[in-house]
């Protein structure tokens, strides 16, 4: 049986009350996908609502985005995502939360996804996330009652980056602030710098520029 990794993408397609479209950020799926797919892992996709996931950052001039979008198998999977209730966490060696602003509205409160991630992690699996994807980590609690991120080096889209894109008053919460409240040792670099934190089988990246590096760090952990 092939080793499988579960990619989580948002179902949410609007930036709050602005009416502006959003979704998962294509490069934050395609770049980790390429690294892990090339290493022989089978990738499945899940979203909070299942079905077709809305896409943002749709830049097919990026050769990796183009490769992913024209891969019939995975294009079909991301346009027909599993519902959380359809996922058997025991089938997966890792879970990866892709970013895109939509994640801020539907990742944190999804208890089924949090339970899936907890089971994968407590089965010695790897948890990865990039940019706004770590919104999916803020409410994951382990069997010992502690938050997954407590005491761990964690990275995500920063408060400064949210201000830089003018959405700090639109998103439902400040991701960096929430992770710190949950006990994370938050790391960060300057705007749009590639930054990845790895701690205790958790890999988190700051922004789209960090997406490939998150995939590489996950692969490194999985290869041990």
Automatic annotation (TrEMBL):
<feature type="domain" description="DJ-1/PfpI">
    <location>
        <begin position="28"/>
        <end position="216"/>
    </location>
</feature>
<dbReference type="InterPro" id="IPR050325">
    <property type="entry name" value="Prot/Nucl_acid_deglycase"/>
</dbReference>
<dbReference type="InterPro" id="IPR029062">
    <property type="entry name" value="Class_I_gatase-like"/>
</dbReference>
<keyword id="KW-0346">Stress response</keyword>
<protein>
    <submittedName>
        <fullName>Type 1 glutamine amidotransferase domain-containing protein</fullName>
    </submittedName>
</protein>
<dbReference type="GO" id="GO:0016740">
    <property type="term" value="F:transferase activity"/>
</dbReference>
<dbReference type="InterPro" id="IPR002818">
    <property type="entry name" value="DJ-1/PfpI"/>
</dbReference>
<dbReference type="GO" id="GO:0019172">
    <property type="term" value="F:glyoxalase III activity"/>
</dbReference>
<dbReference type="Pfam" id="PF01965">
    <property type="entry name" value="DJ-1_PfpI"/>
</dbReference>
<dbReference type="GO" id="GO:0005737">
    <property type="term" value="C:cytoplasm"/>
</dbReference>
<keyword id="KW-0456">Lyase</keyword>
<dbReference type="GO" id="GO:0019243">
    <property type="term" value="P:methylglyoxal catabolic process to D-lactate via S-lactoyl-glutathione"/>
</dbReference>
<keyword id="KW-0315">Glutamine amidotransferase</keyword>
<comment type="similarity">
    <text>Belongs to the peptidase C56 family. HSP31-like subfamily.</text>
</comment>
<keyword id="KW-0808">Transferase</keyword>
